[in-house]
Amino acid sequence: MKLSHYTIRNLIIPLLLVMAVWSCIFYFLILHEINDETNDSLQNYKEIIIKQFLADSTLLRSRPDIMTRYSIREVQPDEANLSKDEFFDSTTYIEIERESEPIRVLRTHFMSSNGKFYELRIETSTLEKEDLVETVLWSIIILYLILLLCILMVTNYAFKKSFRPLYVILKWLKVFHPGKTNKPLENDTKIEEFQILNKALNEASARYTLIYNEQKQFVENASHELQTPLAVCMNKLELLSENPNCTEDQLEEIGSILNTLHGIIKMNRSLLLLSRIDNNQFPDKELVRLDDIIQQVSDDLSSIYEEKHIKISIRVKEPLIFDINESLATTLMMNLIKNAYIHNIPNGEIGIIVSEKSITIENTGSVRELDKDKLFRRFIKQTHKSDSTGLGLAIVKSITQLYRIGISYRYNNGKHSFILTFP
Q: Which stretch of DSSP H or E encloses residue 91?
């Protein structure tokens, strides 16, 4: 999720709540004001009607009308409440329209000059009030939605404008690759925090490039300096073993030393490869058909491990094409298939299934499940195979992490399976 979308999402809920509360308060204030105006009108009617009645008590004590009506009736003194006017909403039946309509009612009491008490009931139609309330309600809803949309749009615009330097930095980081010619970060901004970040990134990238080049040179030198004396030692031992004066015991010792040197050379190559992978020293990528590489690797390994009589089957459901360094792709497949050979049983089986987005490599082997927590650690051997350095699966893990390839292990019915899932 992008930072702008995350920020707007966090703003929506507070804005919805605040504006909803504001809209409700505004609506009830308007409603109160409308009722207050209606009550004032009824009180004015009350004053006029009472004055006319007190001046001439022979006036009609009720007057029907479409919009306003009133009625006067005599009440007992204990029923009369001269200190308070009562307002309430009600409905009345209009014969002309033959339906009930909402009204606002004022009920009050007064005393005439002869000491009698009367109840005055004034009713006024609230049709205009209902229409006005409905209009106000819809106006508030529409205003609420428009205002919310405008606030989010303005927030999004202000956010993008304020964080423009951040997006420039992210774009620069995406194209930055150590070992290649990289442009310096050019990010003109007046914001102090981004100026500090720009300076820190330029300095860090310069240091990182320097360290990367030094480490790359070290790996190349180490590879040359170690491989050469090891090769010399092996050649001398091989020459020594051809000496006719060597006894059988000496030949056995020479053979043991040669095996040890072979292991050291393999381990040295694996460690150097791991170092190069971890430092991303394989920048070149191309679209590679992994099913073709699998076929080539399996052909090479089947001849090497021919004496184990292992049956291998490859089923390609769909060609798998992936953007990867071809050398690392070969190393990845080589280590997984070689692992299936090394940890297999005589007359065992290896099955490889290739689909558009995954590769499954399964093999017969030990009758116990391997420890998943230790499976991809360096120098961790879960079997006692002499030709295993304990680095094969560690190299596989490094390559999959470099290219964001998912890898998982499962054990089922005596078969060990490694599943690669490609993005």
A: strand 86-94
Q: Is 49 helix (H, G, I), strand (E, B) or coil?
A: helix
pLDDT tens profile 345-365: 888 888 888 888 888 888 888
Enumerate helices (H) and strands (E) in the chain, giving the number of each.
Answer: 8, 12
87 in Cβ contact with 106 (< 8 Å): yes
Q: Residue 126: left if φ>0, alpha if ψ -120 to 50, beta else—which one?
A: alpha
Q: Which helix (H) or strand (E) holds 349?
A: strand 349-354
pLDDT tens readout for residues 204-226 = 887 877 777 777 677 666 666 67
Q: Which distant-in-sequence residues (6+ apart) come within 8 Å of 81 by Cβ?
A: 109
Determine the Cα–Cα distance for residues 344 and 361; give it in Å rounded to an integer: 12
Three-state SS for 391? coil
Which helix (H) or strand (E) segment holds residue 409: the answer is strand 406-412
Q: What is the DSSP letter of 79?
A: G
Distances (CA, A) of 184 to 170, 206, 209: 13, 9, 12
Please, which residues bridge with residue 286 across strands? 324
Pairing of strands 349-354, 311-316: parallel
d(CA 330, CA 293): 6
Tell me the two tokens of residue 414.
């005596």
Contact, 347 vs 310, CB < 8 A? yes
Alpha helices in 84-126 (DSSP H): none
Residue 351 burial by CB count (10 A; 0-12/13-18/19+): exposed, middle or buried?
middle
pTM of the model: 0.47
